[in-house]
């Protein structure tokens, strides 16, 4: 694999037209833990750079690659539109072009020094970062290109297809990112999605996200889809920009929308499957390791509820002294393996709690930056 990576790098820098990849997703589109991060990024950039003319022929302008900063940068043309576009495109809250720089290929949450190896604990994150790339359409609107399937149709492709039938898109509760286009290069299938930022879980108004996130899971479950990698980095909001001047304004109920991304580890079941009895082998992603979930058979839908609760409680349990019921709400999900409530039951209980809160409780300023292992932390 190291020799192959070196070959890819030489081809990338020499500007030759040799195709740097095959249609084997494991071989050419998945991070190799034996290589350092910079070699991996160069390999990924070579793949996407080679594909740029193909995408451009369909009206999509892929970002370029800055090897010095290890970041994907916007194309010079087309320029962004002057006014915000309507849904499904993101609202623009950035103040300069650097906010558009795309770091997901190198995964901003993981900091490695030159020559460092990718640990097993970050493999799932890096594998997915390899298969996404930013772009613009001919109107300058921000998009994501995502590789979802090789020659054998994948579960991920089936998930996008189920969530994007005309009937599914008519459902007002379906807040998943719509597929704008399907593209096939050789035997590789790509989806074109609007680009949103993962700024959902935020310390401002910490109780505002919980019901929305449970609602997103409920819709996935009704479509018999288990996400299996619910983390803050896989939850997005319809904005682009990392540091808005007023974070509360971008969360106004009449404008904000949330969605899950990254169905690379997800499973899709028959539409008549019983959510209470389905079983699958647990894929140990980072979130499962943090929760110390053992390998083996599991109910993936119950796992999703527990993973979401673990992620949300870090931001919302800071309010436990003001809203005492929020603690038992999370404990009832996370400490009840045998009888973990469903997303529907959890949502119903959360609505009951919220209905009994006063305006003073709902508007109370946060008590800490986040909650972890029973303690408030700043």
Q: Averaged pLDDT, please?
A: 81
**Percentage of β-strand residues:** 15-25%
Q: Helical content, roughly?
A: 25-40%
Quaternary structure classification? single chain
Entry keywords:
single chain, 378 residues, alpha+beta, five-stranded antiparallel β-sheet, two-stranded antiparallel sheet, globular, disordered N terminus
Could you please describe the fold and organization of this structure?
- The protein has 378 residues and is of the alpha+beta class.
- It contains 12 helices and 17 strands.
- The strands form 7 sheets. Strands 1-5-6-8-7 form a 5-stranded antiparallel β-sheet.
- α1 crosses α3 and α7 packs antiparallel against α9.
- The longest helix is centred in the first third of the chain and has 21 residues.
- It is globular and about 60 Å long.
- It starts with a helix and ends with a strand.
- 38% of the residues are buried.
- The N terminus is likely disordered.
Summarize the structure.
The chain has 378 residues and is an alpha+beta fold.
How would the blueprint of this fold be written?
Elements: H1 2-14, H2 25-28, H3 37-57, E1 60-62, E2 64-66, E3 71-73, E4 91-92, H4 123-129, E5 132-137, E6 142-149, H5 155-163, H6 166-170, E7 181-185, E8 188-194, H7 210-222, E9 225-226, E10 235-237, E11 239-240, E12 258-260, E13 267-268, E14 280-281, H8 286-290, E15 297-298, H9 300-316, H10 326-334, H11 343-355, H12 359-362, E16 370-372, E17 375-377
Parallel strand pairs: 4-11
Antiparallel strand pairs: 1-5, 2-3, 5-6, 6-8, 7-8, 9-13, 10-12, 14-15, 16-17
């Amino acid at each position: 694999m190291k020799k192959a990576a070196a070959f890819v790098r030489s081809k990338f820098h020499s500007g030759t037209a040799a195709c740097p990849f095959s249609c084997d997703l494991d071989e050419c589109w998945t991070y190799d833990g034996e290589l350092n991060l910079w070699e991996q990024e160069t390999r990924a950039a070579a793949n996407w750079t080679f594909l740029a003319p193909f995408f451009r022929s369909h009206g999509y302008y892929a970002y370029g690659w800055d090897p010095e900063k290890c970041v994907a940068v916007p194309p010079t043309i087309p320029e962004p539109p002057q006014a915000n576009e309507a849904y499904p495109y993101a609202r623009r809250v950035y103040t300069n072009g650097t906010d558009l720089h795309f770091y997901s290929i190198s995964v901003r949450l993981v900091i490695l020094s030159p020559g460092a190896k990718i640990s097993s604990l970050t493999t799932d994150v890096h594998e997915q970062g390899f298969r996404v790339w930013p772009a613009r359409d001919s109107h300058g609107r921000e998009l994501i290109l995502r590789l979802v399937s090789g020659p054998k149709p994948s579960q991920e492709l089936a998930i996008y297809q189920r969530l994007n039938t005309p009937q599914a898109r008519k459902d007002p509760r379906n807040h998943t990112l719509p597929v704008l286009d399907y593209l096939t290069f050789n035997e590789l299938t790509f989806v074109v999605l609007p680009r949103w930022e993962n700024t959902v879980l935020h310390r401002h108004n910490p109780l505002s996200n919980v019901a929305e996130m449970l609602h997103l899971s409920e819709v996935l479950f009704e479509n018999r889809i288990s996400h299996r990698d619910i983390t803050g980095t896989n939850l997005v909001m319809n904005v682009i920009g990392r540091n808005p001047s007023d974070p509360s304004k971008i969360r106004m109920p009449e404008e904000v929308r949330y969605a899950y991304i990254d169905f690379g580890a997800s499973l899709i079941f028959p539409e008549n499957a019983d959510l209470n009895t389905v079983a699958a082998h647990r894929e140990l992603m980072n979130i499962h390791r943090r929760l110390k979930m053992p390998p083996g058979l599991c109910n993936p839908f119950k796992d999703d509820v527990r993973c979401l609760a673990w992620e949300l409680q870090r931001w919302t349990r800071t309010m436990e002294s003001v809203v005492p019921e929020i603690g038992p709400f999370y404990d009832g999900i996370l400490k009840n393996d045998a009888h973990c409530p469903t997303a529907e039951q959890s949502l119903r209980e959360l609505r009951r709690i919220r209905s009994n809160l006063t305006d003073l409780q709902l508007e109370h300023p946060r008590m800490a930056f986040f909650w972890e292992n029973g303690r408030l932390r700043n």
